[in-house]
Write a structure and sequence with these properties.
two-stranded antiparallel ribbon, five-stranded antiparallel β-sheet, 185 residues, alpha+beta, 6 helices
Length: 185
């Protein structure tokens, strides 16, 4: 990413290449969103973010390309069944880099959901989806683009988590698994 300084107009490099990650349903409604540049007036409030998401959805709903330019932002996207996946950066950002982030996001979610990437499955596994977003980027800085590495970090087996840190549903699921295996022996 490149950032312009106001006083000299010079461009200085920045690691903050990703402005946001967003998943919308086929009606343009927000399913997941992570915005990394809330100082930008386009993303300052939730209302502004939803307005931007509406513009992005309208521009990409019927389009046949993977990349669009909207409001000085480069937006790469991918659609699947009833979802649209978006990654956006500054207009001067490298499209191939943004596309690799999008592919890592989509492939990681696909692996976690066992290729059943649809709205209902996203909602049922929202914790993993949000962790995937966090593993891909932190405050706009790209961390990882390899889906396998992302999934390995996100998909920690329940047995490896101490009992005191597990949720009630995880404890019940673990107990159910242990009971099933003890009955099968």
């Amino acid at each position: 990413a490149v950032v312009s300084t106001q006083s000299t107009g010079a461009l200085i490099p920045s690691l903050k290449t990703i402005k946001g990650i967003c998943i919308l349903d086929n009606d343009g409604k927000r399913v997941v969103s992570k915005y990394y540049d809330t100082t930008d007036e386009t993303f300052a409030t939730v209302k502004d973010q939803k307005l931007f998401e509406g513009k992005v959805f309208k521009a990409t709903e019927k389009a046949n390309s993977e990349i669009v330019a909207i409001n000085n932002y480069t937006v790469v996207y991918r659609s699947n069944v009833d979802l649209f996946f978006y990654v956006f950066g500054d207009s001067r950002e490298n499209e191939l880099m943004l596309l690799s982030v999008l592919n890592a996001l989509y492939d990681s979610i696909s692996m976690i959901l066992r290729k059943n990437v649809e709205k209902r499955a996203i909602f049922e596994n929202m914790d993993s989806v949000l962790l995937i977003c966090d593993e891909v980027a932190d405050r706009g800085i790209l961390l990882e683009c390899d889906a396998t590495n992302i999934v390995n970090r996100v998909h920690v087996r329940t047995e490896d988590i101490p009992l005191s840190e597990q949720t009630v549903s995880q404890v019940f699921q673990s107990a159910k698994e242990q009971l099933k295996w003890s009955l099968l022996r």
